[in-house]
Amino acid sequence: MTSAATTVISDTGRRYLHLHLTDEVGPVRLRNLLNHFGTLDAVLRASMAELERVEQIGPHTARSIFASRGEDHVQREIDRAEQSGVRIVCLEDPSYPALLKRVPDPPACLYIRGSLEPTDAVAVAIVGSRRCSHYGLEQARRFGEGLGRAGFTVISGLARGIDSIAHKASIDAGGRTIGVLGNGLASVYPPEHELLADQVTGCGALMSELAMDQAPEGKNFPPRNRIIAGMALGVLVIEAGSRSGALITARLSADYNREVFALPGRVDQPMYAGGTNGMIRDGWARLVTGVDDLLDDLADVGRIMRSELGAASARDDGETPDGGIPSHQGRAVSSPADATAVSLSADEQRVYQAITADPVGLEQICNDVGLAPGRVTSLLTGLQLKGVVRQLPGNHYARKHPA
Question: CA angle at residue 81 from 22 to 154, to 5 degrees?
């Protein structure tokens, strides 16, 4: 393998790509294969008869897996990615997004154009209607700018309407943003967003689980929405009706134990009765009218980011913040030497006590503290922002000690 190919994909990623490019093997069947054989190498060495014995793997899928072992199609895909400036990361790569890895059906491989940063774990998704009103566009801009200024990465789908305005607003505020596409990264959809796509990659990333030349088809977008939900601490829905794809994203976010927020729509518009207003009425989304409401509902993470928003406002007024370590886009967050220098909530204390100087896995931390993975992930994000915990490869964490 050439050194150029190595920069596009890891050796482990190449093995995952064999199965990822097999049409019949999605996240569920991949999990079944790994549970049955134990390792990826064992899957790739298995005979047809052995493959057929795996749950949900019949003769047709077994033949497809067997045929995927050739190198030609994998190398062509890697070369195509390299030509487009795209990296491919797999589930076992340290750069694979930790929050997304916690969902039940994470993609085996992700195609990325641009860059992912550790701070992208502090993300909120903004989704909504493609055919939105002027009011909806105004609100997408207001929330996108507010979240970007507060230090959140804004995630959306690069679609027309609410999505595109949310991306632009975050960029204008000096924030980071990630666009998740329902097509391969060899092209941009919709095509009029090519300039926006370049702007997104300049301060974030474009992302897809689809092969480089996969066209944008309707069947691709519901699976795409699970990536948007899985990457974020919460999802904000703006101006969406009952049949909007944004509601699929919101439902997935709730299933993943993430926060769901909704901006109320006009009560004299029937479409909102089953959309954003219905979400609020039925109690599965929190009503928000501004960024402050959202920060309140994000508890510890929101409190930290609120202080960052205040610091950003002070700098805009010509004041200089005290100390801190650089965050993305030049912002600063508090960086104490140890946990005694900051105030920790009761739950943060529990998580911090479960972590030592040696790496501890997320699953072990969850077991030790007895909290849900989504809650522990949120608390770990807060502890990282406070500078007392650091994340290590393989979804492990360790205490940060004074230098």
Answer: 95
Query: Which runs of E-coded beta strand occur in 150-240?
Result: 153-156, 177-180, 204-208, 234-238
Return the pLDDT at 176. Answer: 96
> How do 389-392 and 396-399 pair as beta strands?
antiparallel
Asked if 144 contacts 307 with a C-beta cutoff of 8 angstroms, the reply is no
Over residues 288-310, the pLDDT tens digits come to 888 888 888 776 676 666 665 55
Whether 209 maps to a domain, the answer reads yes
Q: How many domains does the chain have?
A: 3
Q: 64 CB contacts (<8 Å, ≥6 apart)?
A: 22, 23, 24, 25
Residue 133 in this model has a pLDDT that exceeds 80:
yes
Distance CA 78, CA 344 (A): 45
Cα–Cα distance for residue pair 245/129, rounded to 1 Å: 8
| Calpha distance 251→253 (Å, rounded) | 5
- Collapsing DSSP to helix, strand or coil, 201 comes out as helix
Instruction: Provide the domain limits for residue 53.
Output: 3-83
pTM for the full predicted model: 0.75
Residue 29 has pLDDT above 80, yes or no: yes
Decide if 128 contacts 240 (C-beta within 8 A). yes
Sheet holding 123-128, edge to edge: 87-90, 109-114, 204-208, 177-180, 153-156, 123-128, 234-238, 259-263, 286-287
- Please tell me whether residues 38 and 124 are part of one structural domain: no
| Structure-block tokens of residue 280 | 């609020």
Q: In a 3-state reduction of DSSP, which class is residue 391? A: strand
Same domain, 54 and 143: no
Task: Supply the mean pLDDT for the chain.
Answer: 84
Please give the Cα distance from 48 to 180 (Å, whole number): 35
Distance CA 381, CA 385 (A): 6
- Domain of 58: which CATH number? 1.10.150.20
Query: Residue 330's pLDDT is what?
Result: 34
The closest alpha carbon to 177, from 159, 160, 194, 201, belongs to 201
Give pLDDT, residue 23.
81
* Statement: residue 316 has pLDDT above 90: no
Decide if 208 contacts 180 (C-beta within 8 A).
yes
Per-residue confidence (pLDDT) for residue 308, from 0 to 100 = 56
Residue 109 near residue 90, CB atoms below 8 Å? yes
